[in-house]
């Protein structure tokens, strides 16, 4: 099948998913699975259809399933005990109610430096909802402000896996890449925030439609802010510690392995889960079981829908569309636009920014000499161009898209119109910054 035909089929599948979930209100899992199934039949050998579906579902479950479960338990516990209200009161007391979106965006940017965007969003989602309710802000804007700030650093800066692995492939200087990546990610995050603020006012969703935490009219005694923040901060500290140690130390000693275990997102969030149990005013088996049962009921649909998004991405990846388009672009002589466009096509086609960056690095690496980008500074610019391309477009085949949608309590159609379009603005802004850097470095 030709590249053009594959692109048309994939685009039709994306449009169909959007229509089914937003217009016809068909269950998101059923929509994603059926579109993925028929797309697989259309583009893959019949014997590969079911294995591709299973691989997409299983790989997604393996990567984020436990993270979502433990994150949901932390979130429900924080909500039930009033800790999210306590944290929101503390933040709003420092920033003022009118600056709640900016506050959550800054929190996301700092949090996102060491950890995956989906892990960060899961951990901070309860705080985000509480801030939204307390400040009476637009839920779509607040969710996008958090999502884009986490996403900006995820695509550009080591120790995130895509940037780190690609730097190894291109033999780029990781230390300088971190500094330049932060420099580019700041305007990228700002542009995503500005775009979300501009377009989200069109959505009429009110804070009252968000899942309630506690009855804020009651006189419930709230836990202290310090105790409330602990289940959120400790996982972030552990993950940051692991990333820092892996970045600075190559030896595989026992302390490094212990830190690696504690700093794994699954272990770190499990630690946060146990810390959250200390927030119960009266700790007993009944209250614990009630919270865990409610958390599992909440996490189940999120995991299933997110894994279904993984199926869609796996089917598209199995078609080889991204690789074909990348090979075609590599012959055009467009300079820094080559890694940008290859990563953009790969990201849009298969959903993972990490896969997009790593695959682009493998495609571009043999061409660096002929492109005139074999020097240290030029390699850094190529890396940043790939990161910019891998930002766009995050949509229905990206598991992060569904994490944002489900943990924020907003509609997939709203996520698509505000968050997905924000990723386009972010990618273009980041690439513009790269082009400016190329003029001065």
What does this structure look like?
By secondary structure, this protein is mostly helical. The chain has one domain. The chain is 78% helix and 0% strand. The chain has 20 helices and no strands. The chain has helices at residues 3-23, 28-43, 46-81, 83-95, 100-112, 117-135, 139-156, 161-170, 174-200, 225-248, 254-263, 265-276, 285-319, 321-329, 337-350, 353-364, 368-371, 376-389, 399-408, 412-440. Helix 7 packs antiparallel against helix 9, helix 13 packs antiparallel against helix 19 and helix 18 packs antiparallel against helix 20 (412-440). The longest helix has 36 residues, at 46-81. The chain is globular. Residues 212-219 have low confidence and may be disordered.
Describe, in short, the structure shown:
By secondary structure, the protein is mostly helical.
Shape: globular
Radius of gyration: 22 Å
Structural class: mainly alpha
Span of the ends, CA to CA: 43 Å
Give the overall pLDDT as a whole number.
Answer: 81
Binned strand content: under 5%
- Most strands sheet: none
Secondary structure elements and pairings:
Elements (H helix, E strand, L loop, with lengths): L2 H21 L4 H16 L2 H36 L1 H13 L4 H13 L4 H19 L3 H18 L4 H10 L3 H27 L24 H24 L5 H10 L1 H12 L8 H35 L1 H9 L7 H14 L2 H12 L3 H4 L4 H14 L9 H10 L3 H29 L1
Which key phrases capture this entry?
441 residues, mainly alpha, 20 helices, globular
């Amino acid at each position: 099948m030709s590249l053009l035909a594959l692109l048309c089929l994939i685009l039709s599948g994306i449009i169909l998913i959007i229509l089914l979930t937003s217009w016809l209100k068909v269950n998101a899992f059923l929509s994603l699975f059926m579109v993925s199934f028929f797309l697989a039949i259309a583009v893959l050998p019949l014997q590969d259809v079911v294995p591709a579906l299973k691989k997409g579902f299983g790989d997604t479950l393996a990567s984020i399933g436990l993270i979502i479960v433990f994150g949901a338990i932390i979130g429900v516990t924080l909500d039930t005990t009033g800790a999210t209200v306590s944290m929101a009161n503390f933040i709003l007391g420092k920033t003022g109610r009118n600056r709640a979106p900016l506050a959550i965006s800054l929190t996301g940017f700092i949090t996102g430096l060491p950890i995956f965007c989906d892990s960060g969003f899961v951990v901070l989602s309860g705080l985000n909802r509480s801030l939204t309710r307390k400040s009476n802000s637009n839920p779509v804007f607040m969710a996008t402000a958090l999502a884009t700030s986490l996403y900006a650093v995820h695509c550009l800066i080591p120790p995130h896996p895509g940037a780190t692995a690609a730097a190894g492939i291109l033999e780029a200087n990781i230390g300088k890449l971190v500094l330049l990546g932060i420099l580019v990610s700041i305007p990228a995050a700002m542009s995503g925030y500005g775009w979300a603020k501009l377009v989200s006012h069109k959505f009429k969703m009110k804070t009252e439609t968000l899942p309630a935490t506690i009855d804020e009219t009651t006189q419930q005694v709230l836990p202290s802010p310090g105790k409330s923040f602990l289940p959120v901060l400790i996982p972030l500290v552990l993950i940051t510690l692991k990333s820092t140690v892996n970045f600075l130390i190559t030896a595989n000693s026992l302390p490094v392995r212990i830190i690696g275990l504690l700093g794994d997102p699954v272990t770190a969030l499990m630690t946060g889960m146990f810390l959250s149990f200390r927030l119960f005013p009266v700790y007993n088996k009944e209250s614990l079981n009630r919270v865990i049962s409610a958390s599992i009921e909440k996490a189940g649909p999120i995991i299933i829908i997110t894994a279904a998004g993984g199926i869609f991405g796996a089917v598209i990846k199995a078609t080889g569309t991204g690789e074909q388009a990348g090979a075609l672009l590599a012959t055009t002589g467009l300079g820094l636009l080559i890694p940008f466009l290859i990563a953009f096509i790969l990201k849009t086609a298969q959903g993972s920014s990490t896969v997009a960056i790593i695959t682009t690095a493998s495609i571009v690496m043999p061409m660096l000499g002929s492109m005139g980008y074999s020097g240290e500074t030029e390699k850094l610019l190529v890396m940043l161009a790939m990161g910019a391309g891998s930002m766009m477009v995050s949509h229905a085949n990206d598991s992060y898209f569904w994490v944002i949608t489900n943990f924020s309590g907003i509609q997939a159609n709203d996520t698509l119109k505000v968050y997905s379009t924000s990723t386009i603005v972010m990618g273009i802004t980041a690439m513009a910054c790269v082009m400016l850097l190329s003029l001065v470095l």
